[in-house]
Design goal:
The protein is mostly beta strands and 154 residues long. 14% of the residues lie in helices and 34% in strands.
Length: 154
């Protein structure tokens, strides 16, 4: 005869295994869309790095929709604080900047910009649903340089 406590433990373990399996097979898609352009005139964004939960994004997980100077978008993921991706065109409201695909839901994204005046206001979509909407860019300050902003997912 089965002990009810053992049966409960087995049921809980099976539930956890099923939950982990379902969660690991899920794909999370994050679109970064410009709400308000950054402050700097005609220049594009200057981004040093983008991380999820403090870790660089994995190669192949990002789709870029804008061209960088000399095509050097990988500078955002090389871990070198002395390099950055410089974009040619100033993005406008509604322009999609990039899409990130992950097999887990991060707690936050962190973006390090060359200066605060390169940080736009973002709309961040998760699987097509708006989860973050900033109303204002980060202003015209030239310092600190670099500067990191966290985008904490609700």
């Amino acid at each position: 005869m089965f002990d009810s406590n053992r049966l409960l433990i087995v049921a809980m373990c099976l539930s956890l295994i099923i939950y982990v399996f379902i969660d690991m097979s899920r794909t999370y898609v994050y679109d970064f869309v410009i709400k308000q352009p950054h402050y700097v005139g005609m220049m594009g964004l200057n981004i040093i790095e983008i991380k999820a939960d403090g870790k660089p994004l994995k190669k192949g997980s990002v789709t870029h929709y804008q061209k960088t100077e000399e095509g050097l978008a990988y500078y955002m993921y090389d871990g070198d604080p002395e390099t950055f991706a410089s974009y040619r065109v100033r993005l406008q409201p509604g322009d999609k900047f990039l899409t990130v695909k992950m097999n887990r839901r991060p707690r936050k994204f962190s973006i390090t910009y060359l200066r605060p005046n390169y940080a736009p206001a973002w709309i961040i979509l998760e699987n097509g649903k708006e989860i973050i909407k900033e109303n204002n860019n980060r202003g015209n300050a030239m310092t600190p340089s670099p500067v990191t902003y966290d985008y904490v997912l609700p």
